[in-house]
Amino acid sequence: MIAFGPIPSRRLGMSLGINNIPKQKVCTYSCIYCQVGTKQRYSDTREELYEPLLIHRKVATLLKKLDDNCKPDYLTFVANGEPTLDAKIGNTIRLLKSFNIPIAVITNASLLWDEKVRDDLMEADWVSIKIDTTKEEIWKSLNRPHPSLDLERVLNSIIQFSKQYKGLLVSETMLVHNVNDTPEDHVRTADFIFRVNPSRVYISIPTRPPAIKTVKAATSDAINQAYQIFINKGLNTELILGFEGTNTGYTGNAIDDILNISAVHPLREDTLNELLKKNNATFDVVKK
Description:
- This protein has ten helices and ten strands.
- It has helices at about 50-65, 90-95, 115-120, 135-140, 150-165, 185-195, 220-230, 255-260, 270-280, 285, and strands at about 5-10, 15-20, 25, 40, 75, 105, 125-130, 170-175, 200-205, 235-240.
- An eight-stranded mixed sheet has the order 1-2-5-6-7-8-9-10. A two-stranded parallel sheet has the order 3-4.
- Helix 1 (about 50-65) runs parallel beside helix 2, helix 2 (about 90-95) packs parallel to helix 3 and helix 6 packs parallel to helix 7.
- It is globular.
C-alpha cells in the first residue's frame, strides 16, 4: 500500500502516510524495537522503486476520497523500511509539493553520508533523524545495522546534513530497557544531539509490538533521567510516551482503509473499531 491514513501523529498532527518501499521490508537497519517486524531484506544500496508519478497519483486519489474533516497536516514518508533507499524520493517529493501540504520524511539517517540522499532530503519541509546512541556496541545490538555501515561515518554525516538543511529538523531517540537507558548513555547522546542542534528533540519508547518480543520500554526513572539530562543540555526536548489516539482518516471503504494502514502501522483494537464505525462497517469486515 503506497498511501494510507491519515493517522494521528504525536509529532505531526494528522499525517497521511506514504510507503515508498514495495511489499517486503527493505532497510539498512533491523532495529530490535521495529514495528514492521523482523522479516526483511537488508540493503545499503539505493534502488529505483515506485515511479514518482504513481505515488503522486495514489496520494491524489486518497486525498479526493477523504472526508473534509480529516485532511492531513503532513504528507509523511514512513515506509516498510528506510525511505531514502528509494533513489527517486527527491523527485517524488518535488511532485507532491503540488498538493500544497508540508512534506515530512522519517529516516534512520544511515545513508546521509551519500550526497544524493542529503540533496533529496533538502526538498522536504520536515525531517526526523534517528539518534538512539553514539556508542558502537549499543548501535550494533539495538539498531543492528547493515554490515557495510560505519557509525562514525553516519554520525559525521548527520552533523553535515544539519548544517545544510533549511527545513525543520528534529531528532528521535528510542529508549529500550537495559540497552541504551543508563545516565552515561543519555549524556553521550545528549552531547552529540547538541552538536546537531535540531529544532526539537524527541525521546520515545516502544509503544507498538516490537520486532523482538523481549524488548521492553525504559523505566519511568530512566526516561526521567534522560529528559533531565537533555533539558539541562539546552535541548528542546519532548517525551513521546503515550498512544496517539484513535482518530484516523477514512474513505468510506473499510477494507481498503484497514489494509492500507496496517500494512505499515499496527492498529489497536479501539482504533480499528473507530475506523469501522466511521465507515459504517461491522467487525465482519475484519474477519473477512
